[in-house]
């Protein structure tokens, strides 16, 4: 009987100790809002295929966690522990650009993979900034900076430039910042699309 009482007392003490333990917050996963359509071409600008590779990223931007700055100059950055993208941004941005270029009828085929031996226009990108930044006036901004490049079928780059956009979030919650990320990407991809049309007009991908 004594052993049973000791065991019961030990069980109760462990249970009570557990009640005082802090609870771990739930993970929250974020998706970007639907993209704004690009200006569509009546006929494909490129008659062959266009391949959009997975974006590159170094350090923090290669991870799945949302990134925030501690200061308006974004010199100090941190990762959220429980606020994550549904997929790494390197894949999210790739799929978003594919969808927008496909809907805009940029090429006869817009895809994410083809054998390296297959002739195609090839688009690559690198994430340089993808930050939630406190604004000096209060609130938050979504800051996005990308390096985007398009290579002709012979490997010669005809678009190779840096693009940056900054959009104010319409609220202090993270969802508002995620919506601002979407608006910033829409602006950047629209500018990249315009460069594709302007600089690639004389390239014939048969």
TrEMBL record:
Every ABC-type transport auxiliary lipoprotein component domain range: 72-188
Origin species: Dokdonella soli
One Pfam family per UniProt: ABC_trans_aux
Signal sequence range: 1-17
Protein known as: ABC-type transport auxiliary lipoprotein component domain-containing protein
Keyword Glycosyltransferase assigned: no
Keywords from the named record: Signal
Keyword Signal: yes
SUPFAM superfamilies: XCC0632-like
